[in-house]
Amino acid sequence: MASTSDIRKGLCIKYNHDIYKIIEFLHVKPGKGPAFVRTKLKSVTSGKVVDNTFSAGHKIEDVRVETRSYQFLYNDGETYHFMNTDDYTQIALQKDALDASDLLKESEVVTIIFNAEDNNPLSVEMPTSVVLEVTHTEPGVKGNTATNATKPATVETGATINVPLFINEGDRIKIDTEKAAYLERAKE
């Protein structure tokens, strides 16, 4: 048993007869009244996201998990196939188990979280950033740089990311997988 002081991003807990992963949390100590923790939970079975508030000191039942490295092989529609980098066994997961499936390219190494009790996969953790090539973007308008101007760009996985005006087709860019946002031009 854990308490609200143990809440952190990525923690898997049992809540309402299901297993949820904490994707956001905020400890709040108002000037008047007791402290509480505001959380955003994602169901690992259905992918449904719910908001919940726990009072300070509330007991939560955490799930013991194991993490393993897997390499993304390919997807066929809604099913994504991964290979264990240690023993080369393969597993297939549904698209809703992934947080940023549109930023996942073949041969990318991800971390898959497994329930230690029954060895079922719970979720897929993407790397903090990925480097992808821009396949399509409109040319930037010269002189339109008074503000932080951006334009949409399509990357090799098919995702659309807002990038600065100086990015051109063929450039490799670093993308934050959590926010699906441009970080910087990739260093070769």
TrEMBL record:
Main localization of the protein described in the UniProt heading: cytoplasm
Keywords: Cytoplasm, Elongation factor, Protein biosynthesis
GO molecular function, one term: translation elongation factor activity
SMART domains xrefs: EFP, Elong-fact-P_C
GO biological process, one term: peptide biosynthetic process
Transmembrane segment boundaries: none
Subcellular location: Cytoplasm
Gene Ontology CC entries for this record: cytosol
UniProt xrefs under SUPFAM superfamilies: Nucleic acid-binding proteins, Translation proteins SH3-like domain
Boundaries of every Elongation factor P C-terminal domain copy: 130-185
Pathway as given in its UniProt record: Protein biosynthesis; polypeptide chain elongation
Domain Translation elongation factor P/YeiP central: 67-122
Family (UniProt): Belongs to the elongation factor P family.
NCBIfam families per the UniProt record, alphabetical: efp, PRK00529.1
Function, as annotated: Involved in peptide bond synthesis. Stimulates efficient translation and peptide-bond synthesis on native or reconstituted 70S ribosomes in vitro. Probably functions indirectly by altering the affinity of the ribosome for aminoacyl-tRNA, thus increasing their reactivity as acceptors for peptidyl transferase.
UniProt-recorded name of the protein: Elongation factor P
Organism: Allomuricauda ruestringensis (strain DSM 13258 / CIP 107369 / LMG 19739 / B1)
Gene coding for it: efp
